[in-house]
Amino acid sequence: MQLRAVKVRNIRSYTTGSLSLGPGTTLLVGDVGSGKTSLLYAIEMALFGFAEVEPAFLVRHRAHEAEVALTLVEGESTYEFRRKFRRRTVRGRESFEIEESSYSVDGARTRYSATELRQRAIDLLGFPDNPNPRAHSDVWRWAVYIPQERMRDVLLQPPAERLETVRKALGLEQYQVAAENAAEVASELRRVAEVHEAEAEQLRHWTEELPRWSTIRVTRARELAELESEEVRRRAERGRAEEALGAATTLRGQREEEKRARERIARELEKLRRELEQKKTLARSREGESLRSREEAEGSLRKLEEIRAVAEPPEEVGALLRELDRRLTDSEETVRAFGQAEAGRDAAERALAEGQARQRVTGAERTSLAERLRRAEEDLPAKAPVPPVDRDLPTLDAEARGVQAEMDRAREKLAREQHVTEELQELLQAGTCPRCHQTVRPEEFHLHFEEARARERAAAGQLAELTERKGALEEERAARSRYEPAMMRFQEAQRTVQHLREELERTEARWAETERLLEGRAAEMRSNRATVERLAPRVAERNAWLAERAPLLERRNRAEAMAQQVARGNEGIRSARERATLLGEEASRLRSELSVAEEQAAALQAEREEIERRWQEGPDLDRVLTEARSEVDRTRAEFERVLTRLAATRAAIEEADRWIAEADRGVRLRSERIAEGTHLRALAGWVGRDFREGLLDLEHRRLAQAQSEFNRAFARYFQTLVEDPNLLARCDVAFSPSVEIDGESTPAEALSGGERTALALAYRLAMGRVVRGLGRLRLESIVLDEPTDGFSPEQVSRMGELLEELELPQVLLVSHETALAGVADRVIRVRKEGGSSRVFAEEPGPEEEPPASAEAPRAPEMGTREPPRPRRARKAPITTTADGIPSPPTGGSPPPADSR
Fold this sequence. Notes:
The protein is of the alpha/beta class. Helices cover 67% and strands 12% of the residues.
């Protein structure tokens, strides 16, 4: 996988720009400050976000938005990372919010969050890293991109910190973590084993309880068999006694039924006699009522004839009323218009008075607001207070809380590292492990002790740095606390002035609106007065018609009342005659029912006499029932006694079964706990001793193997840059670099500037080679930013040989040294014109003069480049022996770029 192109917009000194890359070596040249490193930052930011460089440092000054797009290729596949963000100012503090974070594979684009996009980059490049968008990428900075200002950092790092970084880059920290986890797992396994053994000891009593409850169960089973046979016998006796009692009870029920029948017949006879007397009385009453109804009908007929003789026909009065109602209906519209005109006139008069009152109030408000606005404008400060810091109080508080949390974690880490160091020191002093009692060899644990001391010093330094950072935050917060109340007072004064101006404008608008409403109300009042004067005569005429209508209504009501009275009289006569007929029919029916009731009374009397005869001839049922109940009670008592004993025996058997099952479970569980405890103790011994020591040994061997490979590459690369056979680059077990001069070790501080740069560059390149050799990185590219800082011309010319040694398909060199053009396959120049950087293809060098007829070279469009120059002959790579000492070059052509 290789880098193919990067496009930027509003990144540092670039308004827009693009850089296209290909296989081989590409040199990006330009003056100091022309914008070369900005493109490298853009590549890093496209992959990992703002982990290494803050957005305020990357975004072009005064630009509101910025964008970066990075393209990578692998075979036929194309991948693109794109990030677009926008500048925001909130409460005087600038921040940058993500507008787009996307990732495309062969043109299929998907949007992601900042964390998700960083995870896609980590997965694509092929090395494990922290997906946190604010976390540093050590593998990227060690194996791919080597910034100019960080080149010599590796020479100045404390040995412990350098070794920790190397371990992380090589992926060896997982062994230490696994070993620590193994110790914790072994401790937990031993604790669980102790818990199982304690549980087994608590279950010991079940081994004694199981035989005792088994004996009780056998005894209770024999008792249960005897009681079950006795239960069958007692149940049969109870059944026979209950059958005898049932027969006596049935006979007694029959006698009771006959008694109730006799009493029922007596009640029915008494009731039937009362009904006979009532029906006789009712029949005589209905005959008298029928005669009276006929007499009432005749009297009502005579009165009705008298009313008909004096009644007035209602049709004549109705015709007069209809004519008068028609004229009144025709005049209703006039009356309605007259009423509306009067109401409109009164409403207009009231509205006019209210409008005049509101106008006076509005005028007073306008005067008051104008005076208040004048005073507020005089009190408004001339300018706003200047913020002492960019961040607001919530941001400072949040950062302070974060720093405090980091301090707490740093204290905990320092305590842990101190504890580990003390344990290792005691272990080395004692010479025997206090846990497994094995002899400790100091030469094997010395490296772990040095690592622990280095981690302890690093933790102490981190805590001191965080304490200083917290003090600075507290000073910034105090300054911000003084600024914000002043700013709030200034903003409040501005809002007061703006509010008074808006209120004055609204008051002026209300004044003008009131003037228009008063004019409209006056015109409406005059119109309604004219309408009232015009319709008044017609309303008076209608009132006269209403006065004539009242007598006519009274006459019509009297005529209708008489007609209704005649109708009611006719209905009453008809009803009286019908009632007289019905009463006569009811009297005849009652006399027929009297004959039937007398026959029913005779039959009931005969049935009653027959029941009394059977009652006197029956046996003495009270004595029979008493004897039967006594026998049933005796048999039931015996049966209940047997059932009680049977239930107690069964309960005892169930309890014995329950205890037997519980004891059996306890015995099995105790055996399981003993077996589990034994297994866990054995497993804890293996995990805490054999497995953990194997992990540490594997880590030591992997680190030693990596150190050996690193030493060979380190020496070869340094020898390529510094062709002095007396200088030999070396590193110790902690990967601390040094130089042997005639066999004596010399620290990096004693070297010249060019030699220190060569030593740091060789160290970085060797580490990148080891990381790639472990298969942790799929990217076949390396980016070198000003790698020749402090080099002599001879060292600059030897960069081509060093690039051959790297055997990488793609190399991007960034430098202001034009002499490096001879080692590059293509050259791209960056210039700054008018404060904006641009990318141009490089003009041909002295070795490739253009034809005589060629015009003066022109700068191509942004992102274009000239075709690759013919590659110069490379020197054969310098090989090394097994111990890392360079050997003389051999003949033959160099291996191809993809030979590794």
